[in-house]
Amino acid sequence: MSKEDPYSDTQLTALGLERATLPGHVAIIMDGNGRWAQNRGLPRIEGHRRGVTSVRCIVEEASRLGLKQLTLYAFSSENWKRPPRELTLLMHLLRQYLVEERREIQRQGLRFRVIGTISGLDPMIQEEIKKTETMSAENDGMTLCLAVNYGARQEITEAVRRIVSGVLQGQLQPEAITEQTIADHLTTAGMPDPDLVIRTASEFRVSNFLLWQISYAELWVSEKYWPEFREEDFRTAMRDYRKRDRRFGGLNPGNPGTK
Ligand code: FPP
Q: Active-site residue among 31, 33, 195, 233?
């Protein structure tokens, strides 16, 4: 058995996990790259560089666990406020990841997707995104989704614009607009909602990430900075998720006092 084979039920049990209680979709706010570097007297970009190693480890672990989707917040629409040098290096890392990771994406059979305002990125990065998405479109493994130049408020605003335009053109009646209509106009159309949101570096914020989609997601915050977040930390999150009591606004029939 190679290191990357999916976990068997026996292996999952040994890890304190159970297939039926794993989340289908996990979304991660990868925070603390800068602080990790600064604490070591290194330039911030070293934190981002090391963060890419965490990305590789967690993608592979999520895929071995058999998750349906992993969404990573790689660059927010607010991140453009960072110093030009950090932006250049972040974009360079992103492009390098897209190019270098293609072989790995194919080997693991991942379906690669990007959400966010792709048109606002450097044309060379847009090209690499398209190439990786097209190449992996027929794969049947986990969906690896990167949120790049992504902002949830922008996404919702854009969806409203397109829905209103449909109404003005007579293609849609206002009273026919449902929650599904809105979901279908987001960049995540067709994707399952996240079941679990992980944020690293002890921050308790959602930072304009998938605001519509995480309405009922469980939140899990790690004290670790993203560059030090590894497979065992991810599995700890899965074990904690297993204990959560998700009620979606209703009552859990298994709980005492639910009658
Ligand atoms: C937050 O740390 C992290 C980011 C803004 C970028 C995340 C990017 C990576 C992990 C590397 C590139 C990703 C891919 C997929 C190639 P921060 O800089 O805000 O940390 P701080 O809050 O400690 O300053």
A: 31
Return the best residue to mutate from 28, 31, 205 for the ligand 1 pocket (most ligand atoms within 8 A of CB): 31
Candidate of 30, 79, 101, 208 to mutate for ligand 1, largest count of ligand atoms within 8 Å of Cβ? 30
Task: Please state the length of the chain.
Answer: 259
pLDDT at 232 > cutoff 60: yes
Instruction: Estimate to the nearest angstrom the gap between the alpha carbon of 232 and the chain centroid.
Output: 18
Distance 153 CA to ligand 1 centre (A): 20
The CA-atom distances, in angstroms, between 139 and each of 18, 97, 105, 131 are 25, 19, 9, 14
What range defines the domain where residue 47 resides? 24-152+194-240
pTM for the model stands at 0.94
Residue 145 sits in a domain whose CATH number is 3.40.1180.10
State pLDDT tens for residues 42-98. Answer: 999 999 999 999 999 999 999 999 999 999 999 999 999 999 999 999 999 999 999
